Structure formats: C-alpha cells, structure tokens
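[Automated response] Your request has been received and processed.

Submitted sequence:
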Amino acid sequence: MPAQARRITLPRAARIGIATAVTGVSFALPLVTAMSAQAHTAPAAPVAPVAAASAPAAPAAPAAAQGDASYRVVSGDTLSKIADAKHVEGGWQALYAHNRSVVGANPNLIFPGQSLAIAAQAAPAAPVQKPAAPAAKPQAAPAPRQQLQVRTEATTPGAQVQVQAAVAQPAQAPAAAPVAAASGYVAPLANPVLGEAYGVAGTMWASGHHTGQDFVASTGTPVRAVANGVVVKADNGGAYGNEVEIRLADGKYAQYAHLSSIGVTVGQSVTVGQQLGLSGATGNVTGPHLHFEIRTGPEYGSDIDPVAYLRAHGVAL
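Generated structure:
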C-alpha cells in the first residue's frame, strides 16, 4: 500500500512567519521595479538660453542726391563752354532745355549775370585698377566737320538769307599776346578764313551790296580788336544782332556783328588783339559767323572794303 502523505502540522507562530515572509516578497517586487525605472530615467538637462547673434549693421543709405546747382553767366561764356566745364550730361542742348525759360528762344544769346540751373549728377564710381595696356598707336586728327555758313545778313524786313557750305574751324582760344603787324593791326579772328566777300551786289541789302566781310567762325570763337581804339557801341543792333563797334586811332570804325556774347562796354579803351566778345548767330542769320565792317563813320552806309583796309595795314588775309 502506498504510503500516505503525512500532514505536517506546524505551530501557529511558524505559519504566521511564513505568510509574512511571502507577503513581503510580493510588496518588494513592485518597489524594486519602480526604483529601477527611476534609476534608468535621467532628468532632462536644462537648456542654456542661446544669446541672439548681433545683426550686422545695415549699410548706410546712400546720400540723397543734391538738388540742382546754379551758375551765374560771366563775360565770354557760352552754353557749350558751361556744359563742358560742369560736365552736363547731354551737353549744351540739355543745359539749354533745362534753362529755356531763362535763356529764351535763342541758345546762342546769353548775357552776363543770368543764373542757370545745372542738373546735379551722381558721383562716378571709383575706377577699378586694371593692368596698364600697351600704348595705342597715334591716330590722325579728324577732319573738320562741315556746316552751313551764313552768306550774309539781311538788313531789310522779310529778306531771304542765302547760305553757302563752308568748313567751320574749331574755336580758337585768344592768344595771350597776339602778334600785330608793324603798323599795329591784326585780323579780327585768329586763323581767319574768309567767307562772303565785301561788295557782293544783291537786293537783299538796303544799300544794294554786302557791306562787310564775313569770316567763317563757329559759335564761341573769340573776336578781337584789329587795333587800339575806344568802344562806341556794345548792344543789340537789330538785323546785326549783338554788335560791338570801336573807333580806331585813325578815325575809322571797326564793327563786329552777330555775336553770341559781348565782353566790353561803351567808353572802354581797348588795345590791339584784345577780346571783344564771342562770335555767334544773333540777328538775321541762318548760321554762326562773324560779319566785320570798316566804316568811315559810326553808322550804317559808311562802309569801305575791310579786307583792303587790313591788308593796307600789313595784315595777311
């Protein structure tokens, strides 16, 4: 017969001790698990605040363009000379268009004291340094351009002015000390080029003939006293435009017509070669030139041949 298990009866104190031990194990397991989880979970490190990077300074705004500058006309000025000196973009045409209300309908006629507006321009950028290039071969000077040259001025109302083609010489700067002939005379222009001759007959002139000698000259060419004298006229002369007339030492009168500007005043004494004004196209003309007369008296109609007069005083024309 199989042996039957024997039931062991433990004392009450032993049973309580065992139960207590088992129960303690059941409570200890979740506590250990929780502590293990906490041990493996690291607290997040505090994030240090990132300092804001200082923004680069904004580029300085370009300086505001300056307003128009003004220029006061002086004796001997022309729109072309002013535009070149002030570097006006578009040249004298732009300067004239900008100041038409001041200058008026004739761009060749400006007066000392007028105030002209010069449009301001942005300063040019600094040039980039480049390696020096080989010297360029010299080029031949360009041929002088052609323009319509006035044949003569009309001295009667409504007269038709004829023109002829002529090569315009560049404006010549007045010589510091022009060389006069032994008799004390010079030509009315440096490097003179003869245009329409004196005495040409025609009904367009009140006297029936051309009363002076024309010299080819672009606007702004300096005109000069042919000899010592005194200024007796320095004003606008109608069909002659702006004119200057001087009484010479021998009693004759030298007249300069169609000037763009006048540089002397009545009563002023002038010396041979002194600049009197600048050639132009004022009065009854269709292009710039100098109309030059020699007269026996101060008024129109007392003219004599100016080329013959100057040649008789040693001036080569």
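Summary generated for your ticket: Residues 1-5, 16-67, 143-176 have pLDDT under 50 and may be disordered. The domain at 69-118 is CATH 3.10.350.10 (Membrane-bound Lytic Murein Transglycosylase D; Chain A).
If you did not submit this request, please reply to this message.
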